[in-house]
Design goal:
Length: 177
């Protein structure tokens, strides 16, 4: 079993978001889409902050666009971020633009990024999530992620960079919660 996994932050946040969502009561497929949406919105925000992406498009009347019209029926808060969602024939799904995220594609993405380490990383994260009551987990999920996420260089040098995800650190946090 790996104790350290060298990986980019995006799949780590995707997986952590999915694990947290499951512990908060969402089914596995919905949780996967919530995790992917969370990581995507975080990457978009960071990319704007670093100047990699331009500012959001302005809507009529100036100012930032409203958080509507993204194909969402409602919003769900996960790790301190509002995520656009809709109810589909297959269940709840987070959306990107006006398209529900495909949970099978998210599982494939995670498998590709973590490889053989996916199971042990997921288990360590699940142990951490289960150490907290749901309300405490909802309140502290992003703070916990900040404690265990891989360290990368700051600024543009860190964009897309890989760092070490320490599974012992994740496990140790479950004893401190």
């Amino acid at each position: 079993m790996a104790e350290t996994v060298t990986i980019n932050r995006a799949p780590v946040l995707t997986l952590w978001g999915a694990v947290v969502a499951e512990w908060l009561g969402f089914d596995h497929d919905a949780a996967l889409t919530l995790g992917k949406c969370l990581a995507g919105l975080n990457a978009q925000s960071k990319g704007r902050m670093l100047g990699i992406y331009g500012p959001p498009k302005q809507h009529e009347g100036g100012g930032p666009p409203k958080k509507v019209g993204l194909g969402e029926d409602f919003w769900i808060d996960l790790c301190g971020r509002g995520l656009p969602c809709q109810q589909t024939d297959d269940g709840l799904r987070a959306v990107v633009k006006d398209k529900p995220i495909d949970p099978t594609a998210v599982e494939k993405y995670l498998s590709g990024k973590f490889g053989d380490d996916l199971g042990c990383v997921r288990d360590a994260m699940a142990d951490l999530a289960s150490a907290l009551e749901p309300k405490a987990l909802a309140d502290r999920a992003y703070e916990l992620y900040e404690q265990f996420r891989p360290a990368i260089p700051s600024g543009r040098k860190g964009w897309g960079a890989k760092g070490d995800l320490d599974l012992d650190l994740i496990r140790s946090l479950s004893g401190l919660t």
